């Protein structure tokens, strides 16, 4: 599991740049174009929100739990439809931003969430957070599926029978990489080099092997009712992010200047910037080293 410190390394320094480029409730996960790339990024993110809220059958008054809520895009959308919710993140910057906008968001690891404290909810969502739930070390120690089962148990304990869980995550693509092949010093732009930079970008994170593995871990509590692949949509999302980040703004310029000392002293940070510069995550999707799934589960008992 990525620690709070590792999540802060990934997200907190990006707080300004994400929010200046993408808005206050920035979605930092793949949008839903369903292959229609004439849509704008905002339209495709809206389509995703509609799909999520429809999947969990949100109604006015519904209560949802968002595990890994980021800057609160789904909680915010749920509130616009009369829903209410609680969100968990490991990023203090995200929680501060959400609270400032009246969202109920806590800096808390889902592993420490007691379902009794949350109470029953009508739907659970987790969008682009599952990627962080198992670290490379936990994967090597054979703990991956135990972690995923614990996650599904928390979701199950929070729902009544028939309740829905929307889960969106990156997964390994054609095959699970060999951890020994991940090397930030490998030949530039080779798969090993790209994965080496991805490891620096998302420290403490390892992806699920495939959809079958996720379904198996969910099985004691949930049945998979629908799934669709969002790999190509994610590539388009990342192209749009690249365009948004490149748009000049004074706030962005000040932010870059503030980051300069960190860039000079912190090697891992330089790797993260390189990862962004070369679009390592997008290359992983293009080369099918990674893929991306949207899944809707229903609680069976
Ligand atoms: C890529 S962001 C996705 C944010 C948001 N769901 C979205 O779609 O924009 C991943 C989120 O997962 C959160 N996260 C990762 N591991 C977590 C954990 N163990 N417990 C709670 N949140 C976690 C991070 O803090 C971050 O908010």
Q: Topology of this protein?
A:
Elements: H1 4-11, H2 15-22, H3 41-55, E1 63-67, H4 73-80, E2 84-89, H5 92-100, E3 105-107, H6 115-118, E4 123-127, H7 136-140, H8 144-158, E5 164-172, H9 191-201, H10 211-218, E6 222-229, H11 231-246, H12 250-265, H13 267-277, H14 280-286, E7 290-299
Helix pairs in contact: 8-10, 9-13, 9-14, 11-14
The structure holds S-adenosylmethionine.
The site of S-adenosylmethionine (SAM) has 24 residues, from α1 and β2.
Structural write-up:
With 301 residues, the chain is an alpha/beta fold. The chain has a single domain, classed as Vaccinia Virus protein VP39 (Rossmann fold). Helices cover 47% and strands 15% of the residues. The chain has 14 helices and 7 strands. The protein has helices spanning 4-11, 15-22, 41-55, 73-80, 92-100, 115-118, 136-140, 144-158, 191-201, 211-218, 231-246, 250-265, 267-277, 280-286; strands at 63-67, 84-89, 105-107, 123-127, 164-172, 222-229, 290-299. It has a 7-stranded mixed sheet, sandwiched between helices. Helix 8 crosses helix 10 and helix 9 (191-201) packs across helix 13. The protein is globular and about 50 Å long. The protein starts with a helix and ends with a strand. It binds S-adenosylmethionine. The site of S-adenosylmethionine (SAM) has 24 residues, from helix 1 and strand 2.
């Amino acid at each position: 599991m990525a620690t709070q410190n590792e999540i802060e390394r990934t997200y907190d320094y990006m707080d300004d740049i994400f929010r200046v480029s993408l808005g206050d409730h920035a979605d930092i996960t793949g949008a839903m174009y369903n292959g229609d790339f004439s849509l704008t990024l905002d339209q495709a993110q809206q389509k995703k929100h509609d799909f999520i809220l429809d999947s969990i059958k949100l109604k006015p008054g519904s209560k949802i739990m968002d595990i890994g809520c980021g800057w609160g895009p789904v909680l915010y959308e749920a509130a616009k439809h009369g829903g209410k919710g609680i969100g968990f993140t490991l990023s203090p910057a995200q929680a501060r931003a959400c609270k400032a906008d009246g969202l109920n968001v806590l800096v808390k690891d889902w592993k420490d969430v007691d379902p009794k404290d949350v109470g029953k909810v009508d739907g659970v969502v987790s969008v682009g957070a599952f990627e962080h739930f198992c670290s490379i070390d936990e994967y090597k120690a054979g703990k991956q599926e135990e972690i995923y089962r614990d996650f599904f148990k928390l979701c199950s304990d929070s729902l009544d029978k028939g309740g829905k869980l929307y889960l969106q995550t990156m997964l390994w693509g054609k095959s699970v990489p060999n951890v020994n092949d991940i090397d930030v010093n490998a030949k530039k732009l080779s798969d090993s080099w790209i994965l080496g930079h991805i490891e620096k970008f998302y420290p403490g994170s390892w992806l699920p092997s495939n959809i079958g593995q996720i379904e198996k871990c969910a099985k004691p509590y949930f049945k998979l009712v629908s799934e669709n692949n969002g790999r190509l949509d994610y590539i388009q999302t990342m192209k749009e992010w690249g365009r948004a980040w490149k748009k000049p703004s004074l706030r962005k310029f000040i932010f870059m200047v503030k980051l300069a000392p960190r860039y000079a002293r912190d090697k891992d940070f330089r790797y993260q910037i390189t990862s962004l510069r070369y679009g390592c995550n997008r290359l992983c999707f293009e080369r099918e080293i990674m893929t991306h799934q949207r899944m809707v589960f229903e609680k069976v008992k």
